[in-house]
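[INFO] parsing input record for SMAD/FHA domain-containing protein
[DEBUG] input buffer:
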Amino acid sequence: MKSPRRHSRSRSPYRRQTQTSPSRSPSRRSPRRRSPSRSPSRRSPRRRSHSRSPRWRSRSRSPIRVRSRSRSPISHSRRERERIDKRTRVRPINQSRSPKKEEIGNDGPKPNFGLSGKLAAETNSYNGVVLKYFEPPEARKPIKKWRLYVFKGDKEMDILHIHRQSAYLFGRERKVADIPIDHPSCSSQHAVLQFRQVTSTNDETGEKISEIKPYIIDLDSTNKTFVNNNVIPPSRYYELKASDTIKFGFSTRDYVLIHDELDDEKLE
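[DEBUG] output buffer:
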């Protein structure tokens, strides 16, 4: 009967072992308890990684800063080129001196497309000399063969045929004068003999008749122009007729105007 009890006692150590097993539990639980201790070790690299991350980023950005420095001389060179281009550019004189555009309303002056000033002078020049006169639109070559007989006192000096052109300039400037006048009292551009086409109406029939007639105009000369010993007004056309005598300034030469039909009438 005692054997079963012994067996029970023999089992007791097992039970003790089982009871002692809870003593081991702390060893088994130690890793669980240590886990919080390890957690900082595990988190430490993360913290370090977070702490290092800005360093790594700053290092990664450093080459960008270097590139930006490398680009700076290029930008400076472009600015210098732009400055040099601005300095080397030549501005046209007309743009630099041109006045500001005036705003013209509906009631403002109408545009004038005619030439004026130096531009008109350049277009109305000949042999480098600016002309005081330009022909009107009604200028025509004469049909009749007009001539000028030049006299000095009672002596005939020359005969000038003036039917080949529509206008003849008298003056001392030989570069532009068609008929030069060498007397010192005459101006460089003294007067112009101009042939013009003029329309007139016949009083009896009412018909319009167009004729080419000779006119003379004084170009504001100093000592005037004379027709039949009478001073003509300056800058105005004065009609000439056959057998009129023209004088310029204080010159002693007379210019008598005649055409062929007048000679034929005299012969008849």
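[INFO] Confidence is low (pLDDT under 50) at residues 12-23, 92-109, 111-121.
[INFO] shutting down worker
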